[in-house]
Amino acid sequence: RPKLIEDFEKTTKATVKGDASQRIRSLFELEDGDLLAAKRIRQELEDQGSLNGLNFWLDELLTRKSKEFEPVALAVVTRAEQGQVSFETLFWVSDIYLRPQVSNSLRNQFLTTVVARTQPANFVAEPAPQVAHDLLTKVLPFIQQSTPELYDQALNHSFAMRASLNESQLASDTRIKRLKESVNPVADLKSE
User: Where are the alpha helices (DSSP H) in the chain?
Assistant: First the structure.
């Protein structure tokens, strides 16, 4: 019997964690839902939980002209500065930060964070992910317009990432070709 209760509690906890995106989405439907959702989003950020719906959540707060938008969006940038938000998530939410209704200070802080996170020194151990380069390329015109003092630095980061992507992509393509032509690809993979 105690085992059954323990299994139930584990399942409930897993469901709650797995359903964070849907639960936050549901909060918006309640009265003062933006306040409740913002609180839950901050909790997800603090717990380093799933941010799969972040783009939709920020969009909803912005569309509602919620006073919670700016603090939540700023919390995302703060976590991104600390490396706690993935490049993929930053790529998807970047459209939100680049909208005209977003304050210049918030937009500039987001752009500054992207430039800082895409420094070549951050990718010494392994090459920059493609999405990091895509993010930087996407925001370059906004960096030039909004934070021109960072533009040359951002452009240099972009060139450095592109060069490392090309090298790693070339190595990957060569490896794939070699494995395709191999008589025993499994043995070749094991020998690597």
Answer: 2-18, 20-27, 33-46, 54-63, 69-81, 87-97, 104-117, 130-146, 151-181, 185-191
Give this prediction's pTM.
0.75
Q: How far apart are CA 160 and CA 50, in angstroms?
A: 31
Q: What is the DSSP string of 47-102?
A: TT---TTHHHHHHHHHHTT-TTHHHHHHHHHHHHHTT-S-HHHHHHHHHHHTSTTS
Rounded Cα gap, residues 74 and 88, in angstroms: 18
Are 96 and 73 in contact by the 8 Å Cβ rule? The answer is yes
Q: What is the pLDDT of residues 89-115, one digit of tens each?
A: 999 999 999 999 999 999 999 999 999
